[in-house]
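Subject: design request, 372 residues
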């Protein structure tokens, strides 16, 4: 139900964007031809590219919501990131094209002929673009659509372009000096910059980004609240298969006295609560057994924690377990990405712990801070 609402919202918003941008493009093309203004003509072409972006958003949303199949068992949600990239490339291409045309007009200028009708058309388009940009960004964030947010950013950039066009017209009317070719070049640089930034953000989403800190903490807080005996939640990893499509895994610390039945009941409950509250499917929940009733084990843990946390760029340790019978100590340490050499730092920590406890086999696993 939620997915259907999201799809319908994105498509309806995108269709509205297509209609508005086509109308604006037509009026601006008319104004550009009437005034012989290259800046206004380029602005018109830019509106057509925005309409194309909205069409691509619609197609991408439809494809992304296709059901999972044997070849793509996690669905097709990541297609939305690809459509966002395509929109970014279109914006970049529009900026480069506009820059080329502007440079041509610098060397071969055409004297524009502005009138009230032309200025009114551009002024109205500014207002419409601002409203459209705000609406797209607001709705895009609400339904978690990168494509809509990208289109909203582009619409707001277009409003700045139109304002610049009006400013150039005013300068020409007052001083009889045409600056629109130079203005077009400056505008083109902003469009190119915006396109490059959007491409970078799209690539980052496809590569996989760090989990939002507050979101990760909320999920971990939800997990430890399921049962008062859970000592902590660690190693939360979320895999993004499209907006609002998150699958992940986590480790929990539980008392060594828990049996398999207790663990099964609690882990199932964790999965139910997390998907209900956060729309995240936990496909795996690992378990760390903690010697909560062993004072000797807790004493050794305290000593080890002092040794480990004495190193800078070590963010924490967890999963501690002492097997006194086999003289084995096991735990994980979290190494910060801020460390100059993560592997070297980890090896240094291992050496220090082994020196402190030479009679034990020390098994330490290196974790990275993939989530807070």
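Subject: RE: design request

Done. Sequence follows.
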């Amino acid at each position: 139900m939620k997915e259907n609402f999201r799809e319908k919202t994105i498509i309806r918003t995108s269709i509205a964007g297509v209609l508005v941008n086509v109308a604006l493009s037509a009026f601006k093309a008319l104004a550009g031809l009437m005034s012989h203004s290259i800046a206004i003509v380029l602005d018109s072409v830019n509106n057509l590219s925005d309409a194309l972006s909205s069409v691509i958003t619609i197609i991408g949303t439809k494809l992304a919501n296709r059901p999972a199949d044997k070849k793509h068992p996690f669905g097709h949600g990541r297609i939305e990131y690809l459509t966002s990239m395509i929109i970014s490339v279109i914006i970049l291409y529009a900026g480069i094209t506009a820059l080329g045309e502007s440079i041509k007009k610098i060397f071969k200028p055409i004297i524009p002929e502005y009138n009230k009708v032309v200025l009114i058309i551009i002024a109205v388009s500014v207002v419409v673009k601002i409203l459209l940009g705000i609406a797209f960004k607001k709705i895009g964030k609400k339904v978690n659509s990168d494509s809509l947010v990208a289109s909203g950013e582009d619409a707001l950039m277009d409003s700045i372009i139109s304002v610049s066009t009006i400013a150039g017209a005013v300068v020409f009317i007052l001083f009889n000096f045409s600056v629109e070719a130079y203005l077009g070049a400056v505008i083109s640089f902003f469009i190119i910059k915006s396109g490059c930034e959007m491409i970078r953000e799209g690539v980052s989403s496809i590569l996989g980004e760090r989990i939002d800190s507050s979101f990760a903490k909320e999920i971990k807080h939800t997990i430890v609240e399921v049962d008062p005996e859970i000592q902590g939640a660690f190693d939360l990893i979320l895999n993004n298969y499209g907006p609002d499509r998150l699958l992940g895994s986590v480790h929990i610390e539980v008392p060594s006295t828990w049996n398999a039945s207790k663990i099964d009941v609690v882990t199932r409950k964790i999965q139910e609560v997390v998907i209900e509250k956060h729309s995240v499917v936990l496909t795996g929940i690992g378990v760390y057994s903690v010697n909560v009733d062993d004072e000797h084990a807790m004493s050794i843990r305290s000593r080890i924690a002092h040794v480990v946390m004495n190193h800078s760029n070590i963010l924490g340790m967890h999963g501690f377990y002492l097997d006194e019978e086999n003289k084995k100590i096991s735990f994980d340490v979290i190494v910060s990405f801020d460390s100059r050499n993560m592997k070297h730092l980890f090896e240094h920590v291992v050496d220090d712990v082994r020196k402190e406890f030479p009679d034990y086999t020390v098994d330490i696993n290196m974790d990275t801070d993939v989530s807070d």
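The longest strand covers residues 280-290.
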